[in-house]
Amino acid sequence: MQLEDLKPDVTGILTNEDVSITERLNQICHFLKDNVDHYDWVGFYFKNGDKDELKLRTYAGLETDHVIIPFGKGICGQVAVSNENFVVPDVKAQDNYIACSINVKSEIVVPLFKNGENIGQIDIDSDTIDPFKKEDERFLEFVNQEVSKIL
Ligand code: SME
Questions:
Q1: Measured in angstroms, how far is the CA atom of residue 74 from the centroid of ligand 1?
Q2: pLDDT reported for residue 123
Q3: Angle at 103 between CA 98 and CA 106, to 5 degrees
Q4: Which terminus of the chain has fewer CB atoms gathered within 10 Å of its CB, N or C?
Q5: Residue nearest to atom 1 of ligand 1 (CA)
Q6: What is the mean pLDDT of residues 77-84?
Q7: Residues 15, 145, 147, 120, Cα dihedral to 10°
Q8: Domains within the chain, CATH numbers bracketed
């Protein structure tokens, strides 16, 4: 399965006005987890009101304790302040990392912008070492751009 081939379905899910925006985001999490072998946990975090912290809005995969993540903490909290994609080929090599499950080997976090402002992010964990390529970054940037249009 090529990531490129998933784009029409991503757009279709996100533009379905019959369901709430949170439900559409939830469907995206499940769609990506179910259709990309190396995506084992997929979630969307957003800035929590005017606080300098992220709040988990929806996800697919194992339940996590990390519903709230302060800016600067972990991979997610670092992306909240850097505004840059963060690809972690091997989580064991990271000092500032918040472990969610012992199965997780790698992670990618891509920020989500609305009108140029970093308002959240898509976070993906993988049970495989070093699976995330440039194609994943470009694809997840596309997903976030499509999400941004409906927010
Ligand atoms: N590993 C993340 C925390 C979120 S979980 O992956 C769901 C981090 O270091 O920010």
A1: 6
A2: 98
A3: 60
A4: N
A5: 98
A6: 98
A7: 180
A8: 3-150 (3.30.450.40)
